[in-house]
Amino acid sequence: MLRLFTYAEEKSELQRHLSRTVTFEPEVREVVQEILTNIEKRGDKALFEYTEKFQGFKPGEITVSADLIEEAYRSADRDFVAILEEAYNNITAFHKHESERSFFYEGENRVILGQRVTPLERVMLYVPGGKAAYPSSLLMNVVPAQVAGVQEIFLTTPCDSEGRVSSHILAAAHVAGIDTIYKFGGAQAVAAFAFGTERVPKVDKITGPGNKYVALAKKEVFGHVSIDSIAGPSEVAVIADDSADPEFIVLDLFAQSEHDPDASSVLITDSSELAEAVKTLATEKVSAMQRSDIIQQALAANGAIVLTKDIREACEVSNMIAPEHLELHVRDSWEILPDLKHAGAIFMGSYSCESVGDYFAGPNHTLPTNGTARFFSPLSVRDFIKHTSLISYSKEQLGLSGEKIAQFADHENLQAHAEAVRARLRKLGR
């Protein structure tokens, strides 16, 4: 089930086995392009047709009423509501540390330069609600937008054929103070908010996970709106030495693999004894898992145990993978942290399992996948703000710098650029 690789001897084969890219089949591209084109041209009529076709729901009212949101919250298990509220507070506390401020500074001759930070005005947060409903994703997308100061936050999530939305999603929305929830999903939801329709507002940004149709639709509308990223299957890498607990590692690999048959779970260790223990224990325990079939498929296709000569080489393997989640089950996780350059989130120590970050700790669980942790970051407050440069030049400073600026323009053969400066210099008698 879990294939063992020796890194020094099988590096190229390991790279091939773990290679990950987001690809979309031609038939998916065709369906998504048709949906985008139709909704851009025909608005609500096309949106409602697709909602009935794919969700079995013929829209009348397209948003969830405030009464239903309140009812879901009131009728939810009180212990679960308390957990949602504490998680929301933890996530908010963390994201407040990401807040940015505008800055301005004054140079010579009364020149003022700066950067103004302003929130986006409207965002749509996509929350899966079909086969799997994830209130944790709702909280992780809502909080950074709220902390950034976004004024209009819309949620959309698929409903069933009767127009019902997951009560867990509604309860989480109530906890987060969100009262505008649309009842459709898929590529049609992305298109509606990207282009705007008669009853759906055009937004500035779309975030949140979804299936391959949602992911491709987000990719295609980028430019009409901003998006967070193109999410691929989830992944975890675990670096462990001989002090690690095999059961912890096996369950953490299972936790990742139960998401999806395409999920990737990799153990990287310098201990052959640990490698064998994990391999054996995984085989013994998998049948007891509710999603054992999915776990076995994922581990067979995308799982691996990588044996390295030492922990430093284990860090090299992790950097090659650039995993979404990276767990450190070693004696001193802080000691090896400087060697780890690429990961969406790093979980320090054997009691910092990925589940802690997925639900409760505070940092965002919307993370870069498919090796994009080499250049992408987790979803954050920064995704919901924009920066505007401010330049206030004085007559005195333009008089001193103007001819240099004009000559720069001359070298780029942009006459009007240069003349715009020289006209002002002539007014100044220069």
UniProtKB/TrEMBL annotation:
Keyword field: Amino-acid biosynthesis, Histidine biosynthesis, Metal-binding, NAD, Oxidoreductase, Zinc
Under CDD domains, the record lists: Histidinol_dh
The cellular component terms of Gene Ontology attached to this UniProt record, alphabetical and capped at eight, are: cytosol
Cofactor stoichiometry and binding remark = Binds 1 zinc ion per subunit.
The protein's annotated catalytic reaction(s) are: L-histidinol + 2 NAD(+) + H2O = L-histidine + 2 NADH + 3 H(+)
Functional pathway:
Amino-acid biosynthesis; L-histidine biosynthesis; L-histidine from 5-phospho-alpha-D-ribose 1-diphosphate: step 9/9
Q: What is its EC number?
A: 1.1.1.23
Tell me which InterPro entries the record gives. Answer: Ald_DH/histidinol_DH (IPR016161), Histidinol_DH_CS (IPR001692), Histidinol_DH_monofunct (IPR022695), Hstdl_DH (IPR012131)
Cite the binding residues for NAD(+).
Y126, Q188, N211
One biological-process term from Gene Ontology? L-histidine biosynthetic process
Location of the active site: E324 (proton acceptor), H325 (proton acceptor)
Q: Indicate what this protein is called per its UniProt record.
A: Histidinol dehydrogenase
